Fold each of these.
Amino acid sequence: MDIIKFNDRGFSLIDVLIGIFILGLIVTFASYALLQSSPRYQLRRSTWAIQVKLIQARYLAIFKNIPHRCVFKKTGIVLEKKDSASQKWIAISYQELPGVVVEANNTPTFYPQGTVSNLASILVHNANGSFKITIAISGRIKTVPAPPGP
């Protein structure tokens, strides 16, 4: 009959500490890599969110037969509809765009015919780069990477 010693059945305290130390290093390097790529994803996610809001404003204008517009703030976008009774703009929703700065030269207004007035160029940028979103009079929305500035 073999006698099992205590040390033969598992890991020692030093083995466990070394394993935890190696696991900690892996988590540290992985989180650092994710934090470095975060601005790129914030830029793309915000650009996509702006495109979605613009498309939403266009289709709401068409289907509800009421003009809608998108108002751009430094760190967000407001979707508004025109109240036919008071002729004032009423905010429907606001979406914050963290990690980016939004610059627009105009406030595009979408009409029930599917057209847009106040043609706009929107620049979305952060430390990782920038995208330019343009809106044509037909309501077409085009997004391209913007060249780096001076």
Amino acid sequence: MDDAINDPEKLATIFNILSAEARVRIIKLLKDDALCVGALATRLEISQGAVSQRLRILRDADLVIPEKRGYFTHYRLNEKNAG
């Protein structure tokens, strides 16, 4: 995040990404624990497809990191960029 603070364009991008309530809620949930799409969908009460779309945006911005665990991919907060 330090790099983003020094780069107005990156900072604006992060603010734009976090302007959506569902993405902020995902970040908040991932702050405490790594979760898979299904667990996030249940907690957020939205479809897995909707969660996946939002995670893609967060992943592209390097705010979350996917971790393959068996058949599932769990996502965790990228503390370097979102912490």
Amino acid sequence: MTTVHAGSCRCGKVRFEASAEPHHVSYCHCGDCRKATGSPVTAFVGFNESEVEFSGKDAKTFENGPVRRGFCGICGSPLYYADARLPGKIYFMLGAMDQPAYFKPTLHAYVREQLPFVHMPDGLPRHLKSSVPRPDNGTDK
């Protein structure tokens, strides 16, 4: 039996389903994610793009170098992050998932950029930079 994990934007016009378990669930403390989400820390759920189907309205995108961020053009909800240096991978905002409590983050990334008032004493591994190596420079954005 195939596991299906679904999610959507706030207004529900952009929906997505992943037909497999995620390959990555993490927190990110980088400034870019803070700006993109308006949150002091972001949580992501990563899937292979080949396992994801979108329905409803098409997500709007914003591209900055190799990074593409998807959001709803109607309600503005941030939905996902994709990086051209990580082909075939897509990382959804944990809060966009229909069952967010199912996805427990396993690590923290970019803790060198963590805000000083954010305290998360969860015992998870903490990476100064990215937890996912990129081919062009190894560990950075």
